[in-house]
Specification:
Number of strands: 17
Helix content: 40-55%
Number of domains: 3
Structural class: alpha/beta
Strand content: 15-25%
CATH class of the largest domain: Alpha Beta
CATH architecture of the largest domain: Alpha-Beta Complex
Shape: elongated
Strand order of the largest sheet: 1-2-3-8-6-7
Oligomer: single chain
Length: about 500
């Protein structure tokens, strides 16, 4: 509970006074653990003199240490924002001054101010998180994780059970908000999932994939600065809370997007992240994603409920949000069965467009992993996705290896309980049989379109992983596709608009 031993009101008044900043207008934002003051191009944050089960800012020394830790932890994520720690000092005459000489009575994190309306929660509310931004977001997280220091996995794995216990206790405090039976079910299923996953998490730790991450990577803690997403306000008060498997860190962001109904963006973030890191073992680790997502939602529910209890005017809305997170946690911990879908067709038939459209609809959250032959082939030769490969990268021998790799990755994804969409031509019967054997339930969709339509499509596209051009599209007219007698493959007319093809594909998947 809060500790009122330190009277911070004189400091708060100083930082809220425009005169402190040369007359600039000041905006104050309070949270349960900090007060933030925005003035001109400057942002100053002090730690509130509080003590909670998960943090202790009750003494000046602890607050100074927390400010220093915030700078240290956040500079790797946002070096352009975090300037340093400044004192609020009392002079001999008793007056307080920001950065002044005298005896420090408080410490503040000094930051460069950014446009607070451009955090991603605001952008989400305004419908501004498009596919391009989702892709940049995934790249930024992948880059941050690549820099994050590796930590001992054992304490974090042990702490997961403590996190579940803390959630249980918090939910019991609000029985009118969190139905006791639902809370008991969530805790029981979460513990069962954790027990199954411990060997996987231990192995991930040995691989160096448990790291000191951001720890609080939701949309409100990411700002769009100069067109690029920048994470800020990482957890500094507890290294254990900030630690975790890199997919656990990512899961907060994915959960936040899912909760807001941004399924397509969440799916793009997951797939782009996997494409950036290119760690095959992450496919096996998708088995942990339901627990990670559910736990993130449950923690968000707990924290939001505590904030709502202390609120006044906004209390009903905050408590509704807490219940929404809680309900989401209950759904995420029991994901639906996975599916394996193959999307085939000659070049220009619209395979990749359909695969990307279908993926967010195939749960478990946040949608299917998309495996694309063009991307796999480029990775095999160590070139960028939009770089063109020479003809010898398309020999039958190389193509056989690419299809075998796709089937192996699809098998790993489905075995982890996740869904996959595999995007390749699948012109030959043995290629279709290979992917059909990779997992069940399986459905293959072979897209058909006339040559004129296909030529127009391959001619119009740019900056794409496919090297197919008009000459390739014409040559494919001579392919012997064999028959489609297999019941697990269905031909789908793709000569119309992408929306029409998607509708036909949905119908085929539901049959």
């Amino acid at each position: 509970m809060p500790d009122a031993a330190d009277d911070q009101e004189p400091v708060l008044r100083l930082l809220a006074d425009p005169a402190t900043y040369g007359g600039a207008e000041v905006r104050r934002i309070d949270t349960h653990a900090a007060s933030l003051f925005l003035a001109g191009d400057r942002a100053l944050k002090i730690k509130r003199a509080v003590r909670f089960p998960f943090l202790d800012y009750s003494t000046l020394a602890r607050r100074k240490a927390a400010c220093a830790a915030e700078i240290e932890v956040n500079r790797p994520f946002a070096p352009q924002l975090y300037r340093g720690v400044v004192p609020i000092a009392r002079a001999a005459d008793g007056r307080l001054a920001l950065g002044g000489e005298g005896t420090p009575v408080e410490w503040a994190v000094d930051m460069r101010r950014f446009d607070e309306t451009r955090t991603l929660d605001h952008l989400a509310d305004n419908g501004e998180i498009d596919a391009a931004l989702a892709g940049r977001l995934a790249r930024a997280v992948a880059a941050a994780h690549a820099r994050a220091p590796v930590v001992d996995a054992a304490p974090w794995i042990e702490a997961l059970a403590d996190f579940l216990d803390q959630n249980d206790a918090a939910f019991r405090d609000y029985p009118e908000l969190f139905a006791p039976a639902a809370a008991e079910r969530l805790g029981r299923l979460s513990r069962a999932a954790l027990a199954r996953l411990v060997p996987l998490l231990v192995a991930r730790g040995r691989q160096g994939l448990v790291r000191r991450g951001h720890g609080d990577l939701h949309l409100g803690n990411i700002a769009l600065i100069d067109g690029e997403p920048v994470a800020f306000d990482a957890i500094e008060f507890d290294p254990l809370i900030a630690a975790g498997d890199v997919l656990y860190d990512l899961a907060f962001l994915l959960m936040d997007l899912v909760e807001r109904g941004l399924a397509a963006a969440a799916n793009i973030v997951l797939n782009r992240y996997l494409g950036e890191t290119r760690r095959p073992d992450d496919l096996d680790a998708l088995a942990a994603l339901p627990l990670f997502l559910s736990l993130r939602a449950a923690i968000r529910a707990k924290v939001t409920a505590a904030r709502g209890a202390a609120a006044a005017d906004a209390r009903p809305a905050i408590l509704r949000a807490a219940r929404t997170y809680f309900d989401l946690a209950g759904r995420l911990i029991v994901p639906p069965a996975s599916r394996l879908v193959a999307v085939g067709g000659l070049s220009g038939s619209g395979k990749s467009v359909l695969a990307r459209a279908l993926a967010p609809e195939l749960w478990p959250a946040p949608g299917a992993v998309v495996l694309r032959s063009d991307v796999e082939r480029k990775a095999r030769f160590g070139v960028g996705e939009s770089e063109r490969l020479p003809a010898d990268a398309y020999t039958p021998e190389v193509t056989a290896v690419v299809y075998s790799t796709l089937a192996d990755k699809a098998r790993r994804v489905v075995a982890a309980g996740h869904s996959a969409v595999v995007d390749a031509v699948f012109a030959r019967p043995h290629e279709r049989a290979l992917i059909a054997a990779a997992g069940a339930p399986f459905r293959g969709l072979f897209l058909t379109a006339d040559l004129a339509t296909r030529l127009a499509r391959v001619t119009d596209r740019s900056a794409d992983a496919s090297d197919a051009d008009a000459a390739v599209a014409r040559a494919q007219e001579n392919y012997d596709l064999g028959d489609f007698a297999r019941p697990d493959w269905i031909c789908v007319d793709a000569s119309g608009t992408p929306a029409e093809t998607l509708a036909r594909a949905r119908e085929a998947l539901s049959s």
